[in-house]
Amino acid sequence: MDKIVHKFVQVNGVKLHLAEIGTESSPVVVFLHGFPEIWYSWRHQMIAVAGAGYRAIAPDSRGYGLSDPPPETEKFGFSDIVDDLLAILDHLGIDKISIITKDAGTRPAYLFALLHPTRVTSVISLGIPHTPFGPPNFLKELPEGFYINRWREPGRAEADFGRLDAKTVVRNIYILFSRTEIPIASEGQEIMDIVEPSTPLPPWFTEEDLSAYGALYEKSGFLNPLKVPYRSLDEEYNIVDPVIKNPMLLIVGEKDYFVKFPGVEDVIKSGMVKHFASNLEVEWIPEGSHFVQEQFPDQVNSLILVFLRKHC
Question: Which residue ranges traverse the bilayer (predicted)?
């Protein structure tokens, strides 16, 4: 961790934080985080790829961590993260990258690969396959208490989270998302109420890790992270051909609660996912949760390095 350096770049009217490790002349791997994550969620992978001869760069998306918030939250969308990534690469003089992404970071990663395919060597995603963009069907198929439905409702999550400090909110989300069950609140219950205060953290997530996340969300707050991803799922894009043709690897934890979302497991296991990523490999990690890259870093790092060596 001591070898990871931190810098800021001014692009598209905002100052963005980058964590980086590796020599500037090495092939570049960019890591895009999801929610409730920040650059720190890729700490194990950054060190591993740098040790294997790559240059690892992990931005905090605008509105997250140490990066500036967007000027207008109501206009903030996934497209801004795509534009920011392009601007970061141009600012740093980087021509091509491999992208590693998970969760809410997958949509901007997939958009970037579709809009700028010549700038992408390969894509590695964790958990969420590439399918056509738009509001997912599971928003209607799962009940009102489904956490995404709740968090899409303006003011609902703000009131729920506002009863607790940022560190406790992150703690509760990490516990919820590490389970195999889809987080669904009962009638009269809020999402934060699902986790009992006495519930321990996952064994692979330390108090030190929680403090790192908590401090950064104390700075950024949760308003912009709620806007992207949850309140931007109906964002539209001018994509003519939705098929990613770059080499791509999908790593899925078998115990990831997301796999239980209606239709997700079938899309992956039936091979339908290859309709939208024509050069795709899929690897499953037994016992892997939604945070498989933090839970089983050695297994994930091994898969990443084998894939990068083939395609980078």
Answer: none
Convert the pLDDT of each residue in 246-289 to its tens digit. 999 999 999 999 999 999 999 999 999 999 999 999 999 999 99
Is the CB of residue 201 less than 8 Å from the CB of residue 172? no
* Full DSSP string of 27-93: PEEEEE--SS--GGGGHHHHHHHHHTT-EEEEEPPTTSTTSPPPS-GGG--HHHHHHHHHHHHHHHT
Q: Is the Cβ–Cβ distance between 236 and 268 less than 8 Å?
A: no
Which of 17, 33, 130, 290 is the catalytic position? 290
Whether residue 130 lies in the annotated active site: no
At 161, which amino acid appears?
F
Specify whether 110 is catalytic.
no
Active site residue 6: no
Q: How far is CA 61 from the centre of its chain?
A: 10
Catalytic hit among 103, 160, 209, 256: 103
Checking if the pLDDT of 171 tops 70, the result is yes
pLDDT digits (tens, 9 = 90+) for 76-122: 999 999 999 999 999 999 999 999 999 999 999 999 999 999 999 99
Which of 130, 230, 256, 257 is the catalytic position?
Answer: 230
Write phi, then psi, for 182 (nearest 5 degrees): -70, 130
Contact residues for 270 (Cβ-Cβ < 8 A; gap 6+): none
